[in-house]
Amino acid sequence: MSVQSLQPGWWKTPVHKEERIWITVALIWCILMTLIMPLWHVVGEHNPSAEYYRIAPEDFDKLTDEFIDKYKVGVEGDFAVVEPPAGADIFLRGSQWQWDPVLKLKVNETYRLHLSSIDVLHGMSIYPINLNFEAVPGYDYVLTITPTSTGTFNIICNEFCGISHHNMMGKIIVQ
Amino acid sequence: MAQENDSSGEPISKWEKFYDNIFLLFILGMGIPFTLYTIWGVYEIFSTPLSPLVN
Question: Domain A51-174 maps to which CATH number in 3.30.450.20, 2.60.40.420, 3.30.457.10, 3.10.28.10?
Answer without folding.
Answer: 2.60.40.420
